[in-house]
């Protein structure tokens, strides 16, 4: 018997919404992988028709009233009640927004994405400036229709939306640890003897990389009956159903390691979808996982497994077979080369050590956006000053500066911090796992599922029924502690760069 037993009307509601969602996700994946470009206009039109239908079904006032009534009959603490509580919280955030206010917001958001693309291409922030301010202010003003909003907590509400149980106070403390512990370490690494990366600067064509990606998926024991890898412009993962997850990657001829690590990263996201308690599929317990929680799983696999020496040792025979160019490098040398840390301007190209500082910069700017104190005229300078302060580098173009990420153009404030938080959660989870499993030994045996089973049994099967903060505490036996993350980085980079 299923763990979740809903009233018929509610199960039908979930199934209907699930059918729309499957259609829309399938179209989204298709558009972003293999669909011919010229078909986009027609597909976009069909998608907007289907999504407004789904929205109307989901937010039908009569249905909502029925769900509220039904919720009151459910036992507190039951999974059914938990599922519906998550849904009703989401509904409460949006149901009082006047239709014209929401329509204007959606219109501005669509325009903003188009304008951002153009501004980035033209390397000109001034084209984007006005719509960015307008969109951010509209996004913040929408919060006043939510029962969670009380005057000064706009950013708190936004942060909690992306990752349950977090607010500005929580992140302020988190980032103060990051600053205190990592900035001196980054300086030490910069002053140490630098690692020569020329041995991996070899061009490898897309076809050979794709062949290797299949071996990589096999090495990670990914089930080809349930997960499918294809290529795209900006890698993402999409969840189509219980046994159907699509992951994507991008093959760059000159940086072939980037596709390997991004495939490992996306497979981490995929696993979360594949290893949730089976009965949660199609419900908010599967669909409403926070982005910090998700990122904790992708970064776990990417940083703690994919960047480890044990991983490269185990993968070494296939690497040399596919890329004989590397036969003169040992697995130790490859590991060193993929972990090189050099402060740069672009978040998505950042190494593991400097990455959280890219996020800190965005966090500090978002706080000003949320309380409407940001000087949008001078945003590029504010951005550049922070890069100079924290990373010692200064962008001289908008494209490599404030225009590099798409998040703000889509009205997402509060999303960025989850990337850094996810990495820190991952470090604490890894510490707990390493007490139970000899990772090196399991990888050497080719037993990748020892790792993924641990993640399933300790973390992923909960879906959204527990917050990642709770899971981390439960699994490690202590409250979330960001110094576990910073100590892990200190340890790793001290060894890598021979620091005192
Ligand atoms: Zn990710």
Automatic annotation (TrEMBL):
Entry keyword set: Carboxypeptidase, Hydrolase, Metal-binding, Metalloprotease, Protease, Zinc
Cofactor(s) this protein cannot do without: Zn(2+)
Cofactor, free-text remark: Binds 1 zinc ion per subunit.
Enzyme Commission number(s) from the entry: 3.4.17.19
Reactions listed under catalytic activity: Release of a C-terminal amino acid with broad specificity, except for -Pro
Name of the protein this chain belongs to: Metal-dependent carboxypeptidase
Family membership noted in the UniProt record: Belongs to the peptidase M32 family.
GO function terms (MF aspect): metal ion binding; metallocarboxypeptidase activity
Organism: Ileibacterium valens
Catalytic site positions: 266
A Pfam family that the UniProt record links to this protein: Peptidase_M32
Lineage: Bacteria, Bacillati, Bacillota, Erysipelotrichia, Erysipelotrichales
């Amino acid at each position: 018997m299923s763990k979740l037993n809903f009233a018929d009307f509610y199960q039908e509601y979930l199934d209907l919404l699930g059918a729309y969602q499957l259609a829309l996700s399938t179209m989204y994946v298709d558009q972003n992988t293999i669909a011919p470009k010229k078909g986009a206009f027609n597909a976009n039109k069909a998608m907007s028709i289907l999504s407004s239908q789904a929205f109307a079904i989901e937010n039908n006032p009569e249905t909502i009233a029925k769900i509220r009534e039904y919720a009151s009959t459910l036992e507190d603490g039951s999974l059914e009640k938990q599922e519906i509580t998550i849904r009703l919280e989401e509904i409460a955030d949006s149901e009082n927004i006047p239709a014209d206010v929401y329509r204007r917001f959606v219109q501005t958001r669509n325009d903003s994405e188009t304008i951002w693309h153009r501004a980035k291409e033209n390397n000109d922030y001034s084209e984007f400036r006005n719509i960015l301010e307008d969109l951010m202010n509209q996004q913040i003003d929408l919060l006043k229709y939510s029962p969670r909003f009380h005057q000064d907590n706009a950013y708190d509400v936004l942060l909690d939306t992306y990752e349950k149980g977090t607010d500005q106070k929580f992140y302020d403390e988190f980032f103060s640890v990051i600053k205190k512990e990592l900035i001196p370490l980054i300086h030490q690494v910069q002053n140490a003897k630098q690692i020569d990366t020329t041995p991996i600067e070899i061009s490898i064509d897309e076809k050979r990389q794709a062949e290797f990606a299949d071996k990589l998926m096999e090495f990670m024991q990914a089930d080809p009956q349930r997960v499918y890898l294809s290529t795209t412009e900006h890698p993402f993962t999409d969840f189509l159903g219980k046994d159907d997850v699509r992951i994507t990657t991008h093959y760059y001829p000159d940086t072939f390691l980037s596709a390997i690590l991004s495939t490992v990263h996306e497979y981490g996201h995929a696993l979360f979808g594949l290893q949730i308690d089976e009965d949660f599929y199609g419900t908010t317990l599967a669909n409403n996982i926070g982005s910090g929680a998700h990122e904790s799983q992708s970064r776990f696999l990417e940083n703690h497994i994919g960047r480890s020496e044990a991983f490269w040792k185990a993968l070494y025979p296939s690497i040399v077979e596919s890329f004989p160019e590397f036969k003169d490098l040992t697995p130790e040398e490859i590991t060193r080369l993929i972990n090189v840390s050099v402060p740069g301007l672009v978040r998505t190209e950042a190494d593991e050590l400097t990455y959280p500082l890219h996020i800190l910069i965005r966090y500090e700017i978002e706080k000003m956006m949320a309380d409407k104190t940001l000087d949008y005229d001078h945003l590029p300078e504010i951005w550049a000053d922070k890069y100079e302060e924290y990373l010692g580098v200064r962008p001289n173009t908008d494209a490599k500066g404030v225009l590099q990420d798409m998040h703000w153009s889509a009205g997402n404030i509060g999303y960025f911090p989850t990337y850094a938080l996810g990495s820190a959660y991952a470090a604490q989870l890894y510490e707990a796992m390493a007490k139970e499993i000899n990772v090196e030994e399991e990888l050497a045996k080719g037993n990748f599922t020892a790792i993924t089973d641990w993640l399933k049994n300790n973390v992923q099967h909960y879906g959204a029924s527990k917050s990642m903060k709770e899971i981390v505490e439960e699994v490690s036996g202590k409250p979330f502690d960001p110094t576990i993350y910073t100590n892990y980085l200190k340890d790793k980079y001290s060894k890598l760069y021979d620091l005192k």
